[in-house]
Amino acid sequence: MSKTIRLGNRLRYPITIVKLLKRPGDVVKAQEPLMQYSFKWMKTVGDSVRGETWEEEQTSIVNWDSPSDGDLKEWLVREGQRIDKDAPCFVVKEACSHDIQFQGLCAICGKDMTEVNWAAEERDTARAPISMTHDLTNLTVSADQALRTESDLQRRLLQSRKLSLVVDLDQTIVHACIDPTVGEWQKDPTNPNYESVKNVKAFQLDDGPLGITRSCWYYIKMRPGLEGFLKRIAELYELHVYTMGTRAYAQSVARIVDPDQKLFGNRVISRDENGNMLAKSLQRLFPVSTNMVVIIDDRSDVWPRNRHNLIKVLPYDFFKGIGDINSSFLPKRKDILPGATAEPVVNGNGGSAKAKPAASEKALDELSEDTPVTQAQLEEQERTLEKQMKDRPLQLLQEQQDKEDEEAAERATLQSEDGDDTRSSSPPPQRHQVLRDDDTELAYLERHLTQLHKAYFAEYDRQQSHNGAATVDARAIPDIGPLLDTLKSKALRGLKVALTGIIPNEIPAERSEIGQQLISFGAIILNRVSPNVTHLVVNPQRLLTEKLKRALRIPSIKIVSPEWLAACFSQWAIVDETPYLVHVDVSNWPGRGAARDSDAEETDDTTKGKRRDKVLRLKPSLKLVSASGETQELDDDSDDEGDSDDQDDEEELALMPDDLEDGQMSPVDGLKTFNWGSADAELDEFLAGESDDDEEDEGETQDTDGVTDADEPTPSRKRKFEGEEGDTEGEGGTDSERGSQSESSAPRPRSGQAKKLRRTQSVRGTSSLRNQYVSDADGDGDGDSSLPTPQVTGDEEDVKQDVDLKDFDEAELEAELEAELMAEFEAAPDAVEVGGEREQEKG
Amino acid sequence: MFFLHNLERRVTLHPSYFGRNMHDLVTTKLVKDVEGTCSGDYYIIAIMDTFDLSEGRILPGSGLAEFTVRYRAVVWRPFKGEVVDAIVYTVNSHGFFAQAGPLRLFVSSHLIPDEIKYDANATPPQFTNNADMVIEPGTHVRCRIIGLRTEVGEMWAIGSINGDFLGCLQA
């Protein structure tokens, strides 16, 4: 093993070789002088105190010491040679190349690699920097050794016609949770979930974080068909486990999935050995070439460098609402298709959902420093797990389900369409289960992997026959990345997809996770809805988008839910759209009519299940009016929120709302916790006491509804509104007059309010410009455009009083300030006097 | 190699233990603290006896009593060139790991006789010469230590089974 040694950067170039002390063939030792060289330098001489100094050129002769041991083979410099910069100096035949090192020891010669050699520029430990074994980090190898090992591996695999498959655990082939509810359900055959959880395996870990989760049970549900899948795939692929769980966790799961260690053997790598808390890297296992490696994982963002090798699978979400128990370390996932895989927001689990992004933010901030991240995140994970233990999200879910079932049973007699609540289609004869075992992803995955294997070896055979070489050449090995890409790109070719309500607006669709996936499957993403578009993917929770509106006019566009995309992604084919078509009920669509009548919306409340969300968000503006009289302080806050909410709705037509599903705080979150029940009751009270004036209003509303139900609602409705607008303009005055006349009776002001509210709402529907104009033209005391909310316009007298009060307060405040200022100027007793006066004033 | 070594250690005792059997407690505590630890150069395998137990001195401030104990212990100091018996616990393509008591050894594939090859297809993966030699987790091997490195509380060694009478031990 010959090695060329360079002079190094530390010498004072230019140098001149004076004498070579060793001859070729001599044995050299590290730090032993090998040659002498001279260099020139300037020295300051003279008396520095008097300032009489000058520089003189000096020539020094120095020994050059050998950085390494071995036999000197050949000098690459000669005596008398002048060298200007770092250059090769001599060739040495080393006794040991220190290719494999274990914990600072050379595993070949047993030498301590941590010994510092001052003659060498590089430490010996740096000669074997690559860690490539699964279960250890302290065994490192050099690049040469890695190449050797890897080509051995490739040769072996090619001979047995296999590829490498790196398998993720959590949510890819298993789903884990620590919710103790599962254990209870397993013991209880009467539980509706018994059948589902019967096959859930459990184990205990001792090395977990301290505290409540220390020795908790982990429940592992294998993806349906996993056993057969792995058995068949193991004939085509050599399997590796790569997980972000701890070592003990990974091994326990591997033991469950593969009890004989036939599939994975000892090829298990966990976050303990990964060396990076945030990302996985194929280079950790295959440092030289990833040509023969395929990954299956439910997340693509953790594989930043290996996207071409990745087959993304649909996350396996068996324990609903749990997610990935080992994901606290990873950045929050951004690829969740709303509706399809979005974790149902269980009240109990809200905490953990919120905890995750916090952790990931931290993680991203401190990407470079590893240890603090680890500490913080370990705590974070512990907290998340603890939360799960305590809150038992599954139990909550089941309770919810039971409740829904009961309600459904009641309603079944009434034949209400509300009964089928996405889960159940038949009348519920018993309690429904929360956990269902109906995942089919592995079947598709197996098909893809088999297909890929076939394509790869077809390519390999073609190359082999082309080269005519029988031996395996490392360079002749085809790369699986492009192969996989071409295979995938055929899947959805010809699709032109537009997305709406799925990706936050600020991210370009092509760069989002879903977009990238679509492109990788050969589909084209269009940002605008045009007749070219074949499919529009809509978020069923956000139907009020401009794109959808436009798409409705073009009959060739199929409007589908995100589940369709997910199905396409998992099957690698254009799936039949029929079950995924989103039925948009145009007649009930307020955006269509270009005006929104909140009263109409309210009457819709019960008929349209999926619009409930929408209605809920509009409700506040109504309710708060009725409640405003009593709880002033609370209402002030919520009024504001109502405001912003309204504006959101207004903008929604043009602008997609931010992603709210992912546990972010929305401006209306505070309102969700508001006790609507009491507010409703209050409203009912008011409504019950209302006069005929209001009934008239109701009649009007129904009228409007009738118009809305008609086939072409837009123009007539608009006209209607314009008419109504004028109407209300006229009426409004009288109303408010009447309102002020009978201020003493409780319902009266409310009726005026309602009127006003409707007016403003209807006006707002037309256009924002108009809105501005009208609210200015309204000429109310509060015509201020910063306060366009209907609820404030309600009781003019009251508001005015309020304003007056505020003015008064302000004046008082000023007086106070002045007084204080005065107090500073004047003597202390005077100040007290002033203070006293002020207090008297206040009283 | 094993040695009988005379050592000294200061043991502190909490005031709640002060009493008649104090010396026994000190010895117990010593055994608990010291046995099985690695002092850097050697492992303390077992304490034979204590032959000198000083009288306790109260530490100002804490109230703990400090005893200076001199004791005799069996220590194991691995040397370069020493031959040890060990049990294999991990096998990978670069070599295998074995444990000789508390000492972890790595035997790299360079230090395994050429006829013993790595077989990744076996379950579990093993080194074998396709005859009597099969090295897999659990196998007893005899190896020579060729390199040693110590840090406080830990030692690592490089082993070799390249040599006469080294390698698998037939049980």
Automatic annotation (TrEMBL), chain A:
Region feature (Disordered): 341-373, 400-436, 591-612, 626-806
FCP1 homology domain mapped to chain residues: 158-336
Sequence ranges of Low complexity compositional bias: 352-361
Domain named BRCT: residues: 487-582
UniProt-annotated location(s): Nucleus
Skewed-composition ranges (Polar residues): 762-774
An example Gene Ontology CC term for this record: nucleus
Location, primary (coarse class): nucleus
PANTHER family: RNA POLYMERASE II CTD PHOSPHATASE, RNA POLYMERASE II SUBUNIT A C-TERMINAL DOMAIN PHOSPHATASE
Descriptive protein name: RNA polymerase II subunit A C-terminal domain phosphatase
TrEMBL record, chain B:
UniProt-listed PANTHER family: DNA-DIRECTED RNA POLYMERASE II SUBUNIT RPB7 (PTHR12709:SF4), DNA-DIRECTED RNA POLYMERASE II, III (PTHR12709)
Record CDD domains: RNAP_II_Rpb7_N, S1_RNAPII_Rpb7
RNA polymerase Rpb7-like N-terminal domain span: 8-63
Key words, A-Z: DNA-directed RNA polymerase, Nucleus, Transcription
Function: DNA-dependent RNA polymerase which catalyzes the transcription of DNA into RNA using the four ribonucleoside triphosphates as substrates.
GO MF annotation, one: single-stranded RNA binding
Cellular component annotations (GO), alphabetically ordered: P-body; RNA polymerase II, core complex
UniProt KW Cell cycle keyword: no
GO biological process assignments: positive regulation of nuclear-transcribed mRNA poly(A) tail shortening; positive regulation of translational initiation; transcription initiation at RNA polymerase II promoter
One Pfam family this sequence matches: S1
Family listed: Belongs to the eukaryotic RPB7/RPC8 RNA polymerase subunit family.
The organism's place on the tree of life at top rank: Eukaryota
All copies of domain S1 motif, residue ranges: 78-152
InterPro entries according to UniProt: NA-bd_OB-fold, RNA_pol_Rpb7-like_N_sf, Rpb7-like, Rpb7-like_N, S1_domain
Compartments, record wording: Nucleus
Name assigned to this protein: DNA-directed RNA polymerase subunit
Protein species of origin: Immersiella caudata
